[in-house]
From TrEMBL:
The gene is Ogfr. GO terms for molecular function: opioid growth factor receptor activity. Signal peptide: none annotated. InterPro entries: OGF_rcpt (IPR006757), OGFr (IPR039574). One of its GO terms (cellular component) is membrane. Belongs to the opioid growth factor receptor family. It comes from the Eukaryota. This is OGFR factor.
Amino acid sequence: FRLFPLREHGMNWRARPLTCQEIQAFRKSKEVMDRFIRAYKLMLGFYGINLVKEETGELERAENWRERFENLNRFSHNNLRITRILKCLGEMGYEDYQVHLVKFFLTETLVEETLPNVKRSALDYFLFTVRSKEKRRELVHYAWQHFKPQSSFVWGPRDKLQRYR
């Protein structure tokens, strides 16, 4: 059984994808959802991130963030796991959590510049796991505002980004 199961095949071809019925059953089980949040917190801790508010999904750097970010920068396979976690958050009904996690990585890569080797994954993959079209647009605009040079930003049409409210 996978920690963050999806309705698609991952790197482990022996693991079978989830069905919509299984997802619904998981979402109805308090025990399963509690375990899911525990697993999410565990992985965040591994990445140097703390879940500040379970109600909202708000995040902050953990005390050991420098050491953990070094690991994230060095090993790109973590980016695949993060993409999987983001997709699974959406499947399990934690779309607000998706937004906070993507914004966290956009901030760390584009604003703080602490995770340069995660930047492409954040822009190419993490952003587009967000289910809410409105929230995804907000995040693309946020990324565009902080991307340098802005003229090289290819993740959204410049004319729409300039007019975005």
